[in-house]
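Help wanted!
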Amino acid sequence: MTVTQQELAERRPEAEEIEVRRPGDSGTYPVNFDDIVRSVSDKRVLATWLLDFYKAFKDLYARMARYEMILHLMARPKVSDEDALLLEAAIAESKSILRLESDFDGRGSPHYSEATWQRAVQFVRLQWEEYARLFGEPMPLPELQPGPHGSIDVYWKTPDFDLLVNIPADPKKEAEFSGDRNGKRKFDGTLDPARPNRGLVSWLVM
Amino acid sequence: MAGNVGEARPLPERIDDREDLFYRWVPHTFTNSRGRTLNAGAFGRQENVEEGVSFDWSRYATPEQTLGRSARPEIRAGVVKTTAGQIWDSELKVRHAPELDNRAHSLVTGPSETRVRKTLVSICTWAIELPTEGQGHT
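Answered by r_m:
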């Protein structure tokens, strides 16, 4: 849509009265739209207004950042040390996967690398933190299990749902997942295991 | 050598009976620490070799034969089973894929590898349970 010069000239903002400071004067004075139009021809007035606007914007930004920090502290997850210990215990128990040697299954499966296990652990920690941040309670704990071809399975099994996430041995590949709630609401796809996944952790509670 | 009648690969057959059973050898490493619950790792396919998860069809195999086919008999292992009906009801597929040395060989496939493995965990039960630690099947 094109706006003509005449339309621009006739335009008036809805809130016409604001207060401004004049150069060399700390007081503020109400101005209306026509005052502003007259003043923009004076470069000193215009520069003062721009500086005031910049200072006010900086103040507002600093105040918003402080409020955001306070809100973040207030919303800190209510997860106990005991919950965190349970997570650490599950992770520590899963480390036995690394003791499996190549061909441990008689089908030529390779052994599990420390790097793959670390990626699986990082994935679980990230989702655990995201879950606690979003819902303020500890995430149901999955099991870390040996998967096929040197991959590691992260498996949640509860009365309400089960979800399998496969962390591949190849770090360039995405993790594949499949879940459902007692055969319904199937949830399949791939994800980046190096990031918290809001969709995945939300699915765990819905 | 191909062409020798005695070594010809058997032709695949149609699976159409819901009650037909399918067996798979499972080593103890793919069960939980109590050795009773299956892990999804029990149903990995052989990468770049198989297009699905290998099972033995009950038309040509017994659970004992499936157990005996292991390349590493010293590994503590059991055999799990499921039926064609359970496979189909779970939106998976099964087809007969006979091999030269295993006429019972069949493949279970589905929409994704994790979907197939997760589903098989829920529809398979033990045909031959794991022996307790320190014991083997004789």
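OP: Thanks! One thing I noticed: The CA atoms of residues 46 and 94 of chain B lie 16 Å apart.
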